[in-house]
Design a protein that fits this description.
heterodimer, A: mainly alpha, two-stranded antiparallel ribbon, B: alpha+beta, Glutaredoxin, 5-stranded mixed sheet
Chain lengths: 145, 234
């Protein structure tokens, strides 16, 4: 890798870490909404109550948003480790964000065709995942160049 | 140092994440006291006065109140007739009123979530219009008990007018009042009061000025809270 590419690579890891923090904040908010039962109420935030109170919002009794928070935290950790030259961390990023993107696509499908309601915070999470995936793909290409 | 720096950063972020989750949970879950001015206005509203203190509206006057003003437990509900969870809480509040009698006062405040429920405003207007003929609580009960009958109907007016006829109201006056200024002002006043307290959804219930978390609204939990409120006021 050239010096210029290495610098770009580092910048990309920083950007990935920052974007994953946005996703983490969003997922934490959704998890707390789920746990406190606020999502079961009818709320001004249109759609989130319908989505978060649906059976698809839990995995074996655990809030799905919590799993999302864990995933974003893992992306953040891997990006930081990769930034500090832990090479294996950078290689693990791609499969992780691809799985997250597939999961997001499935959740968008559920909101559109099964629950028939969209939750803005869930859509924001999906958008964050797609941005992360794009960034990681660009980073991998740079790393190979 | 460079080898452990990433782990320090990760641990720091983990700490901030857990801390903010805990803070969020505490602020949205705990029984939160209303500002002192809110307590004053809640009590005074039930007595027919119209104080507006510290920017928190007293709500519509006179408020829709069940039970005596000197009841030791005062419960104020911000509700939306089209909201399904409100429909579920309704029989619980009826049960609580039957159980605690004059020791419990219940106030209903209109909080129609018009962005979420297309008929919420029409339902609130119908209840208020019935109230102008002294039949608010009767209409309130009919709207909640038959929520599933009108919730998905395109035109709810004939249904609500049917309820008005069933209650023996002057139908012509009811039709005028539903679209009248008095009803609109009452709903706006209750909404302002809710917004002043930071109400974001329905049902939001306050017991002696403290918000009751949604998960404490099942009868067995609410009963304990009301009992505690009565005991602590003695």
């Amino acid at each position: 890798m050239t010096t210029a590419n290495a610098k770009r690579n580092s910048v990309l890891y920083v950007v990935i870490a920052i974007v994953s923090l946005c996703g983490l904040a969003d997922a934490i908010y959704l998890t707390v909404e789920h746990i406190t039962g606020e999502s079961v109420k009818c709320t001004i935030i249109h759609g989130c109550s319908e989505v978060l109170s649906s059976p698809y919002a839990t995995v074996s009794g655990y809030p799905l948003a919590g799993v999302g928070a864990l995933a974003y935290f893992t992306v953040f950790s891997l990006a930081i480790l990769a930034l500090f030259s832990y090479r294996i961390a950078g290689q693990l990023l791609l499969p992780l964000v691809v799985v997250m993107s597939l999961m997001s696509l499935w959740l968008i499908y559920l909101q559109a065709f099964v629950i028939h309601h969209f939750c803005q915070f869930c859509l924001l999470s999906a958008a964050t995942t797609f941005v992360l995936t794009a960034l990681v793909i660009v980073q991998r290409k740079l790393a190979r160049a | 140092m460079k080898r452990i720096l990433p782990f320090i950063i990760i641990l720091l972020v983990l700490g901030v994440a857990v801390g903010s989750a805990y803070y969020l949970k505490r602020t949205s879950n705990g029984v939160q006291p209303l500002p002192p001015s809110a307590n004053v206005s809640a009590n005074d509203a039930s007595q027919g006065t119209t104080p507006v203190t510290s920017g928190v509206s007293a709500g519509a006057e006179p408020a829709h109140v069940l039970g005596p003003a000197n009841a030791p437990a005062k419960l104020e509900e911000f509700g939306d007739f089209e909201c399904p969870p409100c429909g579920l809480v309704h029989p619980i509040l009826v049960e609580m009123k039957r159980e605690f009698g004059d020791q419990l006062q219940i106030t209903f405040r209109e909080f129609p979530l018009t962005q979420l429920h297309p008929h919420a405003l029409a339902a609130a207007s119908s209840a208020e219009a019935a109230g102008l003929q002294g039949k608010f609580w009767e209409m309130h009960d009919l709207l909640y008990e038959h929520q599933k009958d009108w919730h998905e109907t395109f035109d709810v007016r004939p249904i609500f007018e049917g309820y008005a006829t069933q209650l023996g109201l002057d139908l012509e006056r009811f039709k005028q009042d539903v679209n009248g200024n008095v009803v609109a002002r009452r709903i706006t006043a209750d909404g302002s009061r809710g917004h002043g307290f930071g109400v974001k959804g329905t049902p939001t219930v306050f017991l002696n000025g403290k918000e009751v978390p949604f998960e404490s609204l099942p009868a067995e939990k609410l009963r304990i809270l009301i009992r505690a409120a009565i005991t602590s006021s003695k």
